[in-house]
Specification:
Strand content: 15-25%
Order of helices and strands: HHHEHEEE
Shape: elongated
Largest sheet: 4 strands, antiparallel
Strand order of the largest sheet: 1-2-3-4
CATH superfamily of one domain: SpoA-like
CATH class of one domain: Mainly Beta
CATH topology of one domain: Surface presentation of antigens (SPOA)
Radius of gyration: 39 Å
Structural class: alpha+beta
């Protein structure tokens, strides 16, 4: 087997790719005009007044729209939201939770007869009292929370 070295190889100039990296120059008649229009001094930019206008959005309840004002809200009327009634809360140690089984009693932080919290989509919206309707439980709304986003749970 003979040893081979890259230095031993001979190549033609045609075998090595040549690249011309000089930029193309436009025709002489257009070169001055395009160069001048493309390059502006900072003084020219400052002197030019920008045409700035506020964005105008189409109102949702525009009279020309089909239906009327209630149609926009009607789109949301069939969206399901989870409603939860919370009897109370408590905190337990892991060892106490591990001992919970059928018949265990968990004491909550609310007194008997106290209003329960009504949460819609996880947010406290109202408070109510528990009622029995035939064989089912229900909740009668007693008060709505004035600022649901600030309600303390």
């Amino acid at each position: 087997m003979s040893e081979f070295s890259w230095d031993d190889m001979q190549t033609d100039d045609d075998a090595v790719p040549q690249f011309d990296l000089t930029p193309e120059v436009p025709e002489a008649s257009h070169s001055n005009q395009s160069a001048q229009s493309a390059v502006r001094s900072s003084k020219q930019v400052q002197e030019e007044q920008a045409n700035v206008q506020p964005v105008q959005f189409m109102p949702f309840d525009e009279p020309g729209m089909e239906g009327g004002k209630g149609d926009n809200l009607d789109l949301l009327m069939d969206v399901p939201l989870p409603v939860m009634v919370e009897l109370g809360r408590t905190t337990m140690l892991v060892k106490d939770i591990m001992s919970v089984g059928p018949g265990s009693i968990i004491e909550l932080d609310k007194a008997a007869g106290e209003n329960v919290d009504i949460l819609i989509n996880g947010r406290l919206i109202a408070r109510g009292e528990v009622v029995v309707i035939e064989e089912n439980f229900g909740v009668r709304i007693v008060e709505f929370v004035k600022a649901p986003e600030k309600a303390v749970q």
